[in-house]
Amino acid sequence: MKCGLVAADGAVLHRETRPTPRTVPPRRGGGRAVLDALLETVVELEQKAAADGHRVRAVGVVVPGIIDAENGTVGAENLAWAGTPVRAELQAAVGPDQKVVLAHDVRAGGYAELRQGALTGTTNSLFLPLGTGIAAAMVVDGSLVSGDGYAGELGHTRFVHGDAAELCACGQWGCLETVASAAALARRYGVRTGKAVDGAREVLELLAQGDPDAAAVWSEALEALIDALVLYTTLVAPTRIAIGGGLVGAGETLLAPLREGVHARLTFQREPEIVAAVLGEEAGCLGAALMAWDRVTADETGEQQV
Amino acid sequence: MKCGLVAADGAVLHRETRPTPRTVPPRRGGGRAVLDALLETVVELEQKAAADGHRVRAVGVVVPGIIDAENGTVGAENLAWAGTPVRAELQAAVGPDQKVVLAHDVRAGGYAELRQGALTGTTNSLFLPLGTGIAAAMVVDGSLVSGDGYAGELGHTRFVHGDAAELCACGQWGCLETVASAAALARRYGVRTGKAVDGAREVLELLAQGDPDAAAVWSEALEALIDALVLYTTLVAPTRIAIGGGLVGAGETLLAPLREGVHARLTFQREPEIVAAVLGEEAGCLGAALMAWDRVTADETGEQQV
């Protein structure tokens, strides 16, 4: 769990990382343990803020799951949450004087990139982190898209067809995530060669050394990513696409072929810039705080919240 | 050209249809002739309104093309327009007292369906007319998406892969429009059988009679459409999808397999209702008028325009 204290001007006053309780077998407390750890973290950070002479106005929590905005409940397989009343528990923990904002982690990351990062100044753009999984934060006509919490699942759209399609954890076949996530690169290299690798980082090192199997899985990932970016460009017309997540550590090895591939495929569409996201692993955490501050501001001015 | 006079409450007071000057070879005046016909139509409709005791407050014009919202210019291959200053010419024709609104025809149709048709009450939804071509109007978080005039080109996204992909008029391969538009159904039936048919309507009649070639092209169209609806649902999370255009005349022959196909494919996504659009060929024309009235209201109240 990445967490921190952020001032009204977006300055990060404190940051820390805490372990998330294990929810995979052997389960030790499951989703309740995760929620308890979250509540404990929030309370302890408030105490730290108070000790440092600050007053916490709002708490922003972002999770890799589907948020029911109306009820404040969250479903997140990786956290063993299903209809878990996260907002109510958080509100009870912090008391009635503080705002509580729940959001999706990738959308929060996209919001941080939009406000302070690679998407600054855009009104139609995309934040696409390529990490263990792939989800997207869509900026459309100046606003971050929520789709009632369901939008942006570009990673679970089919870009591998026919016999090459693999079953995704989501139950569909041929999803972008099965071929182009950091986890997929490592897994597919292992399946292809019978050799275990230490994550996508090692696949990229092998690629740099001219390993043909690394080149093959990389090329398949690029092809699916180019398809996805062309599709997104055709449908939603972003002016800029910021690639984030662990894979963007590959730099131009990733970005240059994406730019060339997209450029070659577009005909009538408006061509987007393709750039690296700039906020790294802090994006989601910072976005949570910015969204929480926005709620404070919106409630004070009567404006509609994000 | 479909045109009419619409009251502030959305009631249609008058409607008529006029021919669009030919712009395909042999060209007779090209894009200028189309623009002149448009200006003449607008002026004559104003005269009719005045004769009937009405005052025209605003003019809404929708075109099947890409509109530069900033400059009011339009590019539309079918009208032989390229950077044509339609807004300025319209404004000059109607004088400074009237508002002029330019919009994309499919988006205007979607707006009419949202305000008075099959999408009423939705905040995340899709209008997908299947006609000579295929474009989409996207409603996201309560607003119609513009994407600076470029968004919604679901018809030019690749849903046919490998050797089966055909070259689309847009220059890309395997677009939805090459297999699932009304024009594509007729063309593909002709190519497959060597027999010319009188449009998609005849293909549907042959399908009803059990013609195996009609069944084959229909099945390929359905497969691509199901892919497109699953993709859109995964990425943008609509609660309702309204299918319009000529093909929706097929009724449940079209809608039932789309519903079944989408239902069978979705796993974690929110399942949308799939319904027929209700405003038919009038949708674009009505949407143009509603958008024009919105501009009048927005300017009077200081609200942001659609």
From TrEMBL, chains A, B:
Pfam families: ROK. PANTHER family: BIFUNCTIONAL UDP-N-ACETYLGLUCOSAMINE 2-EPIMERASE_N-ACETYLMANNOSAMINE KINASE (PTHR18964:SF149), ROK (REPRESSOR, ORF, KINASE) FAMILY (PTHR18964). It comes from the Bacteria. Belongs to the ROK (NagC/XylR) family. This is ROK family protein. Coiled coil: none annotated.
